[in-house]
Write a structure and sequence with these properties.
Number of helices: 4
Strand order of the largest sheet: 3-6-5-4
Strand content: 25-35%
Distance between the termini: 22 Å
Order of helices and strands: EEHHEHEEEH
Radius of gyration: 18 Å
Shape: elongated
Helix content: 40-55%
């Protein structure tokens, strides 16, 4: 979702804590927020919702895990399946509210993010 979590404040999304950290940084450095924002790296993020029948959702995720094992790729299963690549990442997880798999890809370019998204969709069985 892009929400900020500040564990030393609380373990949930907390926009007030995020704003507090930004204000603290500007107070300590004198750097305006515009300069701070300009220094941040730029990435492209794409999201795709894949509608799936409720009884088939987990078989799609298992298919992706099987494909990743066959390809010898490492992946994180903390919340769904996340594959990190040197130039981006892709994450597939079951929606908590709808019968679908949410796929998110992030990379340095929109083209690479689209490639990662399609790569994941292929392994999920679209």
């Amino acid at each position: 979702s892009g929400g900020v979590v500040v564990p030393r404040v609380q373990l949930t999304h907390d926009s007030a804590a995020a704003v507090g950290l930004i204000l603290e940084h500007t107070a300590l450095t004198g750097e305006p927020v515009s300069e701070l924002a300009a220094a941040l790296p730029r990435f492209a993020m794409l999201k795709h919702n894949m509608a799936v029948e409720p009884d088939r959702i987990h078989s799609h995720l298992q298919r992706m895990r099987d494909e990743l094992e066959r390809e010898g790729l490492d992946y994180d299963q903390t919340d769904g399946i996340k594959v990190s690549r040197p130039d981006g990442w892709v994450h597939a997880r079951v929606s908590n509210t709808e019968s679908m798999i949410r796929v998110i890809a992030e990379a340095e370019t929109a083209r690479r993010a689209e490639e990662l998204l399609e790569w994941a969709r292929d392994r999920l069985g679209k």
